[in-house]
Structure prediction request, 119 residues.
Amino acid sequence: QVQLVESGGGLVQAGGSLRLSCAFSGGIFNRYKMSWFRQAPGKEREVVAITWIDGGTYYSASVKGRFIISRDNAKNTLYLQMDSLKSEDTAVYYCAASLRPGVSENDYWGQGTQVTVSS
Prediction:
């Protein structure tokens, strides 16, 4: 059974940076499409970034140019480098994994890590 554990969240001032990590276990990591989602208070969960097994990536318009998604297949770990953080980036961030390529196809989820950006 695939398990995902996020870490790296915290409190940061606007303009600062954080790097989130997602440790993957229970499967063959390099076969999975990996995604980052976030959910702010009172809002629906939204996709932030995706990395497919062929190296392709996707970023939401709100984070493009500020966030970078990457993966280390040797360490079974997914990352999200977040720079130039804004107060609107405050949310619980989740990683997700799936063998299926669709953006909305996500079969395994982590427990989430809180990111709070103070203005």
